[in-house]
Automatic annotation (TrEMBL):
One of its GO terms (biological process) is protein O-linked glycosylation. GO terms for cellular component: Golgi membrane. Belongs to the glycosyltransferase 2 family. GalNAc-T subfamily. It comes from Gymnodraco acuticeps. This is Polypeptide N-acetylgalactosaminyltransferase. Pathway: Protein modification; protein glycosylation. SMART domains: RICIN.
Length: 641
């Protein structure tokens, strides 16, 4: 009986526990539903776009790619995300932070590491000092950002991420018809420590201007940036943008390597490599795709307009324009409006270009891979575009600038990053010279003696590139010079008639001050540089050709020695002809029969016009004064590199 009584009590306790459990469950459910309801009400007032979760980032959003992965070269899918390298960045969603990120302007407050470290508040300035202090602080912030980025980031921050550029296309462009079915495109944007505003303006400008049906994706490739804002904040931001993917490299790859990585991960038929500080003009993509679709070996560039690094003002580039390089292997855009043909079609007709700049290039993905991508031996920055250009031309493709496509590129005041190696650019130039220039490379080494000396002590490992060149059956540099770039003057560099023009009387060298530009200006005398920057040559036409392009000639203007554009006619004008008398060292101007002399400041005759009172190189009656004695000093032995 007692046992029965006991069992009844146990059963009742169990029932009680069950009731209590049920009650607890009901309470929790109630609280949760209230919470959810509140959220729903809130989101109704302030709609939130569907978010992709930040933890457990999906593979298509962000992958840490180890570029050493052999799968890359094979184009095989890479291993999924291993770990997300986070930074110490504080990421604070602001009060209005739940809006669509495209409307962002101050949506996120980015607190850079260390920004809030010092909690001591300085003594408040006196009333009058306040305005000045604020102004000073602003200016300091501005100049430190210019230092950091190479452009005025304060101004850039104030400009909308969706600003529209003023129309700069030729009216003829609006009548152009493009094919209905153009190839799909991956826009590959590599960046290393790019500023937030410029990077995002680039991305939005592509999204705002490229037709959806052709834009497969925007592929952001982080070349191991260090700046905090490019880590989780960027991942979060990109996660809201349709059609934008972000991959990260675990190794600093440099421009070419980073682009090759992007290409290996891209899905579009055509690749557009774009710098991380560009703004696209309406309708920029279609004309490029049309040209590539017509011929898959065509590599094309828009007209590159210029964004001013100080004001962010947009400056349209004059047509016709094409890319060229000089004998120091430096790149230039050559804009020659005077060459505009009378033919009305010429305003919309693409022009072939010896090289293209790196800012924006469109290339068929398969052609890019088969022609050898970017040279993996190139270090960080520089020359990769010249290398690609010479290779494309020599190995069966072509390059052109398409005038109805315009993209603006931010021209930096200085590069925003430093290199671990001072001679990095020379090393990249050496690769170009040794792989592609055959015997013509000597002309380069004479004009870049640093490259020459590096080359003497080490050889570049270009075996793979030479093998590629052979297997693709590429043409030689002579073909390239005569067929693609016949305008480039080919120096003769005759022994004893080329090198630095050394003046016996002063122990200095003839010099053309930098910054006077390609149109010419007054010659001067300066310490001999020994770098090849003062290289000139007296050729068989009796011209003294100056500079790495060899397009400027020693000329006389009144009594002054100046540089002028060389004549394209043969025989050349006698005004540009000189005789070098080896025995006396005199350099005699043919037309006037006067001799080249160095005059010190104040050493001029009274009769001289006011503006030539400063010292420099002049034409004077011939004497045997040491200041009229010259010789061409060769810095690189005639055998060359
Ligand atoms: N870049 C990169 N890795 C580097 C150096 C540059 O990804 O090591 C990126 C850079 O952010 C830019 C592009 O490559 O988007 C070209 O570099 P930059 O604009 O500095 O060259 P420039 O236009 O001055 O020739
Ligand atoms: Mn750039």
């Amino acid at each position: 009986m007692m046992r029965l009584w006991g069992r009844a009590i146990v059963r009742r306790r169990k029932v009680l526990c069950l009731w209590l459990l049920l009650l607890g469950f009901a309470l929790v459910t109630l609280a949760l539903s209230d919470l959810l309801n509140r959220d729903r009400v809130h989101s109704h007032q302030n709609p939130v776009p569907p978010r992709r979760p930040l933890q457990g980032i999906p593979n298509d959003l962000e992958v840490i790619v180890d570029s050493r992965d052999p799968a890359l070269e094979l184009g095989v899918d890479l291993a999924p995300l291993k770990s997300l390298q986070e930074d110490q960045l504080l990421f604070v969603p602001s009060m209005q932070g739940t809006k669509n990120p495209q409307q962002r302007k101050g949506t996120y407050k980015v607190l850079l590491p260390g920004a809030n470290k010092d909690t001591r508040t300085p003594a408040p300035p006196t009333h009058g000092e306040m305005g000045k202090a604020v102004q000073l602080e602003e200016r300091e912030v501005e100049s430190s950002l210019v230092q950091k980025y190479g452009f005025n980031e304060v101004v850039s921050e104030k400009i909308s991420l969706h600003r529209r550029l003023p129309e700069a296309r030729h009216p003829e462009c609006f009548g152009e018809q493009y094919s209905e079915s153009l190839p799909s495109t991956s826009v590959v944007i590599c960046f290393h420590d790019e500023a937030w505003s410029t990077l995002l303006r680039t991305v939005h400008s592509v999204l705002d201007t490229a037709p959806k049906q052709y834009l497969q994706e925007v592929l952001l490739v982080d070349d191991m940036s260090q700046h905090g804002h490019l880590k989780s904040v960027l991942s979060e931001y990109v996660s809201h943008l349709d059609g934008v993917r972000l991959i990260r490299s675990t190794k600093r790859l440099g421009v070419g390597g980073c682009r090759t990585l992007g290409a290996a991960r891209a899905a579009g038929e055509v690749l557009v490599f774009m710098d991380s500080h560009c703004e696209c003009q309406k309708g920029w993509l279609e004309p490029l795709l049309e040209r590539v679709a017509q011929d898959r070996t065509r590599v094309v560039s828009p007209i590159m307009d210029v964004i001013d690094w100080q004001t962010f003002q947009y400056n349209a580039t004059q047509w016709p324009v094409r890319g060229v390089f000089d004998w120091r292997l430096d790149f230039y855009w050559e804009s020659k409006p005077e060459l505009q043909e009378k033919d009305p079609d010429s305003a919309v007709r693409p022009v072939q270009s010896p090289v293209l700049g790196g800012g924006v290039v469109a290339i068929d993905r398969h052609f890019f891979q088969s022609v050898g991508a970017y040279d993996p031996g190139m270090l960080l920055w520089g020359e990769e575009q010249i290398e690609l250009s010479i290779r494309v031309w020599s190995c069966g493709g072509s390059l052109e600038v398409v005038p109805c496509s315009r993209v603006a590129h931010l021209d930096h005041h200085h590069l925003p990053y430093s290199f671990p190696d001072d001679e990095l650019i020379q090393r990249n130039k050496i690769r170009v010279a040794d792989t592609w220039m055959d015997a013509y490379r000597k002309i380069f080494y004479r004009r870049d003696t640093l490259a020459h000396f590096i080359r003497q002590s080490e050889s570049p490992n270009i075996t793979e590139r030479l093998r590629l060149k052979r297997s693709l059956g590429c043409r030689n540099f002579h073909w390239y010079l005569t067929t693609v770039y016949p305008q480039l003057y080919i120096p003769q560099d005759r022994p004893a008639l080329s090198g630095e023009l050394y003046n016996v009387g002063t122990g200095s060298c003839a010099d053309y001050p930098r910054g006077q530009g390609p149109k010419g200006g007054a010659m001067n005398i300066a310490p001999c540089s020994g770098t090849g920057s003062q290289h000139c040559e007296l050729n068989s036409e009796l011209e003294v050709r100056w500079g790495p392009m060899g397009a400027l000639c020693l000329d006389a203007k009144d009594e002054r020695a100046v540089l002028s554009p060389c004549s394209t006619h043969r025989p050349t004008s006698s005004r540009l002809q000189w005789t070098f008398i080896k025995l006396s060292g005199q350099l005699v101007h043919q037309q006037s029969q006067l001799c080249l002399e160095v005059l010190k400041e104040g050493g001029l005759p009274q009769s001289s016009p006011k503006e030539v009172k400063t010292g420099g190189l002049f034409l004077r009656p011939c004497t045997h004064h040491p200041r009229q004695q010259w010789h061409f000093e060769q810095l690189v032995a005639p055998k060359g590199a």
